[in-house]
Amino acid sequence: MSIVLILLLNLAVGACIGLTGIAGFLLPMFYTGFLGMPAAEALALSFSAFLISGVLGSVTYYKEGNLEVRPAAVMSAGSLLGALAGVRVNLLIPEDTMQIILYSRPLYTSDAVDERAYYRLLLGPI
To answer: Distance (Å, rounded) from C-alpha 25 to C-alpha 31?
Structure first.
């Protein structure tokens, strides 16, 4: 049963990532909360889903002429270094604290998105 749930959730999240670039934060929450996985394992699985979606999306955008390789390579290098540092720090954080961080992140992100939308309505494009 859990394999079916994982496949369905990854399908839904992959579609959201491909469509809008969002929703990957849902995977580790599902893996830890519903399947009882350790946070590090849940994040590793989530990263692999992002990698697949990112590669497929980038190749598709490149073929359509919507991706400049040089800036994408620079941004990818920065993301790679940041991810490596983040994973190292993650492994130092106790499991229960990491789960609190995982569950708190969507609340913080949604507030930031709402705040930006609010200012755009008031001030126009920022």
So the answer is: 11
pLDDT tens sequence across 40-79? 888 888 888 888 888 888 899 999 999 999 988 988 898 8
DSSP 59: H
Residues 24, 29, 30, 32: what is their CA dihedral angle, to the nearest 10 degrees?
Answer: 130
Round to whole Å and give the CA distance between 26 and 10.
Answer: 9
Per-residue pLDDT tens over the stretch 3-29 = 888 788 878 877 777 676 666 677 888
| Single pTM value for the model | 0.67
CA–CA dist 98, 94 (Å, integer): 6
CB 91 within 8 A of CB 40: yes
Whole-Å CA distances, 5 to 13, 23, 59, 80, 90? 12, 16, 28, 29, 26
